[in-house]
């Protein structure tokens, strides 16, 4: 019996074409993937939704929330058994992680995309879509959180990130690796995530900024964020979780205004910890009330903080969210 899978097309290179004269890659009048639906029907009982058609730099948390609502509505009305979302690769990991934290759905959700548009040589879109449907239809994909499938690899939304501007093997999970592979013979998992978190959310109207630390970072941007009344700030700190002393005053200014400050590292492996006791070191930052994250990258910590704030969590509960 074929599984009932909802395919949601949202745009991105996977649904674009290249103009052979100018070389520009743009969305076409008609999504080339929609024409492929009949080929996909061999793999599953497919339903298609196309709520918007956007390059992924145009996607915001509002579209992510819309996708969450669409999945939950289809599940309620049609009893779907899996979901595949096609998405631009630039912000794909953010949408995948947002859905991972918020969608109430017990079947697999797979997010995929392409690095080459539909009419380029070596186009990877249709292939990735087929692999993703196979994963979404597999029983083993259940209870593994939202998955990202491209280039024959299965990654968790929590760990995956886009690592290369143009290579088809761009999606990697630094430090952890993929949790499974897709081959001609089937879908094989070799690891399983150890934690599952879900947060209930109705809106995404909080403003959370993301700042990258660098040698000599001062407090001016942090003061500006406080004065603009941002609701939360994520800092991609140096190394194990340190900032230049010149940034400390700005962090204190935010904390005094009860604006949560979450720390991640600009290193793409490892976690932040309260190790160093000098001014601006991790120990100092922890003592003044900075929240230490648990290995998420900056863009995902930003979404998690936004979700925590939008679900009215207090500082202590937000701190707990980042320890999971
Ligand atoms: N810039 C494109 C996008 O994210 C890249 C892609 O889809 O691969 O929409």
What is the strand and helix layout of this fold?
Blueprint: E1 4-9, E2 16-18, E3 25-27, H1 37-40, E4 45-49, H2 61-78, E5 82-86, H3 92-102, E6 109-112, H4 125-136, E7 147-150, E8 153-156, E9 161-162, E10 171-172, E11 180-183, E12 186-189, E13 208-212, H5 220-227, E14 232-237, H6 248-256, E15 261-265, H7 282-287, E16 291-292, H8 298-310, H9 315-321
Parallel strand pairs: 1-4, 1-5, 5-6, 6-7, 13-14, 14-15, 15-16
Antiparallel strand pairs: 2-3, 7-8, 8-11, 9-10, 11-12
Bound molecules: aspartic acid (ASP).
Task: Describe the model.
The chain is of the alpha/beta class and 324 residues long. The chain has 2 domains: 4-189, L-asparaginase, N-terminal domain (Rossmann fold, 3-Layer(aba) Sandwich), CATH 3.40.50; 208-321, Rossmann fold. Helix content is 27%, strand content 20%. It contains 9 helices and 16 strands. The strands form 4 sheets. An 8-stranded mixed beta sheet has the order 4-1-5-6-7-8-11-12, sandwiched between helices. Strands 13-14-15-16 form a 4-stranded parallel beta sheet, with helices on both faces. A two-stranded antiparallel ribbon has the order 2-3. Strand 14 (232-237), helix 6 and strand 15 (261-265) form a beta-alpha-beta unit. The mean pLDDT is 95.
Strand order of the largest sheet: 4-1-5-6-7-8-11-12
User: Which consecutive residue ranges, at least 5 long each, have pLDDT under 50?
Assistant: none
Mean pLDDT: 95
Q: What is the global morphology? A: globular
Q: Using the coordinates above, name the CATH class of the largest domain.
A: Alpha Beta
Q: What's the story with the biggest beta sheet?
A: 8 strands, mixed
The separation of the N and C termini measures 38 Å
Distinct compounds present: aspartic acid
Known CATH architecture of the largest domain: 3-Layer(aba) Sandwich
Q: Which structural class fits the helix and strand makeup?
A: alpha/beta
Order of helices and strands: EEEHEHEHEHEEEEEEEHEHEHEHH
Oligomer: single chain
Q: How many individual β-strands? A: 16
What is the overall number of helices? 9
According to CATH, the fold-level topology of the largest domain is Rossmann fold
